[in-house]
Design goal:
Layout: E1 5-9, H1 13-21, E2 26-31, E3 42-43, H2 45-57, E4 61-65, H3 75-88, E5 92-95, H4 98-107, E6 113-115, H5 124-132, E7 137-139, H6 146-155, E8 160-167, H7 179-184, E9 202-205, E10 208-214, E11 216-217, E12 220-221, E13 229-231, H8 236-241, E14 246-249, H9 256-275, H10 284-290, E15 298-299, E16 322-332, E17 337-342, E18 346-347, E19 352-356, E20 359-363, E21 378-379, E22 384-388, E23 398-402
Parallel strand pairs: 1-2, 1-14, 2-3, 2-4, 4-5, 5-6, 6-7, 7-8, 8-14, 13-15
Antiparallel strand pairs: 8-13, 9-10, 11-12, 16-17, 16-23, 17-22, 18-21, 19-20, 19-23
Helix pairs in contact: 1-2, 1-9, 3-4, 9-10
Bound molecules: iron/sulfur cluster.
């Protein structure tokens, strides 16, 4: 059995380092102006060169998304970008536009080409078509069932297949939607969705605009259009047996805390599967971890049932019990303590945990100090504080706190 790849989103250099630290096999990144994600989730080329070098030192691959639907004015920029990506040793380029594909084939024929889920590949004939065009990997449409994916893997075994196994889902078909562009002038088709499908809505009768009908569940508003998030950790054997080689997590816009939690949790699960595929059991503590990131309830999406439209959760906008508290800046061996860069307000009564790739350590915020050992009762974003810690901790490790 080929070892399946755990593929993690990296919206910037810090998130790339976090993904590498917590066990990613590969990361995917956006490149400034040319990926379907907003600017804050994209790399400039200097940062990307650093990220590729560091990731390769740890045996982690880096794929770059060039999945815009290019206009004529973009073509020259894309050709230059493709050359620079090839020079820095990128492991694959993710495209959706046949024009971009053609530029890569003709100017950098050695580069691996991955077809984005944005291209909506849903059948064997389409996979064969893209193979003939020089594509080596396809990110299949999220709307397929595992049975259909298995048929594709059986018919075109030489094509690498990648699917999403975790993250936010869309109410529109593979993100082809104008709701955000219409409401906010920020288009999901440019990677800039503001997710208005998840907002609270009132129903108005036009003759009585002052008397809205409020859709309520248990005194809360109803989120009728908000899809639950995808989560397949319980079904890794079914996913891998379908013939998929790359397991992708959604969320280049998500936080460094999200990256840490999903990477290490799926790493634990995948390692457990690889040790004993037949005996794989999803542990309750893994599911508990995935409930400590912001989510909207979990679903298996379309993978087991093509009849359903994305499952919504009308009662819940999102659930969030924990948040990023800070990151480790360095380990002080002599003092057996960690220096932490605080990212969210910390008080001495907070419940704080340090996330390591293989363990979770409870920290005592009553022993949070300044460099001189002076006890600090409250630390704000930007503060640097120390916590006692017997175990040596890698730089970049993430601390979380329970939300009151
Ligand atoms: S508004 Fe909602 S349905 Fe439309 S693209 Fe954004 S997330 Fe998807």
């Amino acid at each position: 059995m080929a070892r399946p790849e755990l593929l993690i989103p990296a919206g910037n250099l810090e998130k790339l380092r976090t993904a590498v630290l917590y066990g990613a096999d590969a990361v995917y990144v956006g490149v400034e102006g040319l990926s379907l994600r907003a600017r804050q989730a994209e790399f400039n080329l200097d940062d990307l060169a650093v990220g590729v070098k560091e990731a390769h030192q740890q045996g982690v691959k880096v794929y770059a998304a060039l999945n815009i639907f290019a206009r004529n004015r973009d073509l020259e920029t894309i050709a230059g970008m493709v050359r620079q990506l090839a020079e820095m040793g990128i492991d694959g380029v993710i495209v959706s536009d046949p024009g971009v594909l053609e530029i890569i084939k003709t100017t950098q024929p050695g580069l691996s080409i991955h077809l984005s889920t944005q291209a909506n590949t849903t059948n064997v004939a389409a996979v064969k078509f893209w193979k003939a065009q020089g594509v080596s990997r396809i990110v299949l449409a999220r709307e397929l069932t595992l049975a259909e994916i298995g048929e594709i893997a059986g018919e075109v075994p030489e094509m690498e297949l990648e699917i999403f196994i975790h993250g936010a889902m869309c109410m529109a078909y593979s993100g082809r939607c104008y709701l955000s562009a219409y409401r906010n002038r920020r288009s999901s088709n440019q990677g800039d969705c503001t997710q208005p499908c998840r907002w609270e809505y009132l129903l108005l009768e036009s003759t009585r605009p002052d008397s809205p009908l409020i859709l309520e569940e248990d005194a809360r508003y109803s989120y009728l259009l908000s899809s639950k998030d995808l989560c397949l950790i319980e079904y890794l054997p079914e996913v891998i047996n379908s013939g998929v080689g790359s397991l992708k997590i959604e969320g280049r816009m998500k936080s460094v805390y999200y990256v840490a939690v999903v990477t290490r949790t799926y790493r634990w699960a995948l390692n457990s599967y690889l040790r004993d595929p037949a005996g794989y059991k999803c542990l309750p503590e893994w599911l508990a971890e995935l409930r400590k990131i912001s989510y909207r309830g979990y679903t298996t999406g379309f993978y087991f049932n093509e009849e359903i439209i994305n499952e919504t959760n009308p009662e819940v906008k999102y659930i969030q019990t924990h948040d990023l508290a800070g990151t480790v800046l360095e380990y002080d061996r002599a003092g057996k303590r960690i220096l932490v860069g605080v990212r969210n307000r910390l008080t001495s009564d907070a419940q704080v945990e340090l996330l390591l790739p293989d363990a979770t350590i409870k920290l005592d915020p009553e022993r949070m100090t300044a460099a001189d050992g002076f006890i600090i009762r409250e630390a704000h974003n930007g503060y640097q504080v120390y916590f006692p810690c017997e175990r040596e901790v890698p730089k970049g490790a993430v601390l979380r706190k329970k939300i009151d």
